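An instance as discussed:

___
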Amino acid sequence: MRATIADIARAAQVSTATVDRVLNARGGVREKTRQTVMTVAAQLGYLDDGGPIVPVGRPVTLHVLLPEGTNAYIDELEAQFQRQSETLGHVSVIVERLPKLAPLALADRIASLRGASDGIALVGLDHPAVREALRGISARGVPVLTIASDVQHVPGRQYVGIDNSHAGRLAGLLAGRFLGAAASSKVALLSGSLAYRGHQEREMGFRQILNEEFPNLQLVEVREINEDRALARSAVGTLLARHPDLAAIYNIGGGTIGVCEALEETGRSKNVFLFAHDLSEAKRAYLLNGTVDAIFDQDPTQQVREALASLVSRVRRFRYTFIQPSLRVIFRENLPAA
């Protein structure tokens, strides 16, 4: 039977809270106590047998690679990594913002981290160059973790994020139920960029459920807005002029504020349903005034907590029970406190 945290605490003569803090590399524990807990954990078989244990006192360096731009969700990821990393003992988290939708630049940066990083987290671009760079650094024993959007076929990589196909299906279900089955209705889909596998999966899920259950909904346009607020605003203005009877918009990625601005400028904010992703302070106001009808949120606080715990556990070679973040649907009536 596998040892538990309680077993380690009993053998090391410390509290379970202390064991938890040591295993998750948090501060507030004396070095001697840390070493005792890690030794006991190893003796009880709690630690991974896959390689050498990184000494607790030796600093661990993690790199987080995020795209530049105005996406509030990415900004919140960066803020959470910086905030939560302050609670980790002997762990340094370096957050870098790289040119968005630039797979070659991302691949080059990943390759350059060989020998300089103990673990890497990134919002993945699904591109052969990025995939090959991740394979190369993973083969050297560096843990790799993708956030929000995955990169397939990289041995050993871990994904932290929602099931994007399910999110797309949920958006389609809400659109179908909001609009009803009685009459034909036009809907449009906006994508931040199909370079993100997560956006591809959301589109696929959305299309699937429309075909399966809501044949009266006509998907009239799919537009890429490159996660850009100004481009989103312009694209939606053109979209509404071309389809004055448009009934709903599903925005897969960033740029939602631009979409809201276009709907309000054209006087369509109350007769076009808008479904979007990732709650932010700006989107709260649009939920409250009815411009946005529902937001599919993936909770960056929980994502970063799981990402850091997973990477640290893999570097330290101890077992960690990973909890995949869940999808939340937020309406005006269940809007959480800021």
About this structure: The longest strand covers residues 60-67.
